[in-house]
Amino acid sequence: MSLVVCCSCGSPLECDDVELIVTLACPHCERELTLEYSDSSKTRRRVVLTVMEGPHWVGERFLVPVGVPLHVGAAQGNWLSLDGDNVSDRHCELRLTERGNLVVEDQGSEAGTWLGKVRIKSGRLEDRQSITVGEFRLRVDFQSIDGAGAPVAPAMVDDIATALPELAKVRADETAGTWMARNRFNVSRWFLTVFAWLTGAYHWSYLTMVEDWAWYRAGIAGVAVFIVLADLGRRVALVHPYMNHISLAVLLVLTILDITWNMPLAAVANFVLILSIALLALRPPGLRQAIVGVLMGVAAITTIGAGSIPRTIEGLTQYIGSFKW
Ligand SMILES: [Zn+2]
């Protein structure tokens, strides 16, 4: 059974690889939805609401967006529209705060909102607690996220595993073979960050020693290249999947700049890195694609490293030696 993402306006949002997406824009109300938060120990978490009992949708899982009021009730246009005799049109409201507090508030429903055996006006839901809304029992799970965004075998245990064997099966199928698909953004970020340091050093040392630029001018160029790439490395796919396309476009611009600055080695390394990121990050790679992507990333880093490290050391030695102590 899949994970459903609905906007607070009630529109279901279609997206591939929902576990890798952090924010989504609703095409109907244009609201930007955030799908995860960081708790006090900086662990990224998602909250999933599962229909445990009810006349329909049993086993359906809904990802709870952060920071927006989420209405639950029988009417259409609610975030979660539950068709039951004892469900009021607008029954209750959920809100997941940016710090991870999930608050429920009854909206004057006839049958009431129940936390266990207690009828509540409002309350805070803990991991694995259930609320009863009319004939429906809804359970919340706070799931931690590993690296790039796949929910790690979380709270789903005992009662749901027996009630819904297919959920347990989905998780059991997640083997090492999918590691690369889940960690492709982490690997891409790592490549971009290491590359940023090396190519920054390359630009500085090449421009100052081969092209005879003034050291500060070459320094500004090197630092600028470093900042742009390191920033991209931090952002790849974090904010929006389009970030990957932007990263590749920036790398392409840098490749062209390197050609005009007469730095063929940097241009080639850049281009190989573009191919690597394109293979790894644009879509979940197959095994062969992942291997080629990783090899290309390593090749790009090795190339720029071989070109930059010796000359940078030489440049720094000269620069330090030029001081009169
Ligand atoms: Zn919407």
Structure description:
With 325 residues, the chain is an alpha+beta fold. Helices cover 42% and strands 21% of the residues. It has helices spanning 158-163, 165-172, 179-209, 215-235, 242-260, 264-281, 287-321; strands at residues 3-5, 23-25, 32-34, 37-38, 44-53, 61-63, 70-73, 80-81, 92-96, 102-106, 113-115, 118-120, 122-125, 130-133, 136-146, 150-151. Strands 1, 4, 5, 6, 11, 12, 14, 15 and 16 form a 9-stranded mixed β-sheet that branches. Strands 8-7-9-10-13 form a 5-stranded mixed β-sheet, with no helix packed on it. A two-stranded antiparallel ribbon has the order 2-3. Strand 4 (37-38) and strand 5 form a beta hairpin. Residues 7, 9, 11, 26, 28-29, 31 line the site of zinc ion (ZN).
What order do the helices and strands come in, and which of them pair?
Elements: E1 3-5, E2 23-25, E3 32-34, E4 37-38, E5 44-53, E6 61-63, E7 70-73, E8 80-81, E9 92-96, E10 102-106, E11 113-115, E12 118-120, E13 122-125, E14 130-133, E15 136-146, E16 150-151, H1 158-163, H2 165-172, H3 179-209, H4 215-235, H5 242-260, H6 264-281, H7 287-321
The structure holds zinc ion.
Descriptors:
binds zinc ion, alpha+beta, 21% strand, elongated, Tumour Suppressor Smad4, nine-stranded mixed sheet, 325 residues
CATH-derived topology of the largest domain: Tumour Suppressor Smad4
Terminal CA distance reads 71 Å
Gross geometry = elongated
Total domain count: 2
User: Helical content, roughly?
Assistant: 40-55%
Bound molecules: zinc ion
Average pLDDT, all residues: 82
Poorly predicted runs are 147-177
- Going by helix content, strand content and strand pairing, the class is alpha+beta
The CATH architecture classification of the largest domain is Sandwich
User: From N to C, what is the helix and strand string?
Assistant: EEEEEEEEEEEEEEEEHHHHHHH
Radius of gyration: 26 Å
Count of beta strands: 16
Count up the helices: 7
Beta-strand portion reads 15-25%
CATH class of the largest domain: Mainly Beta
What characterizes the major β-sheet?
A: 9 strands, mixed
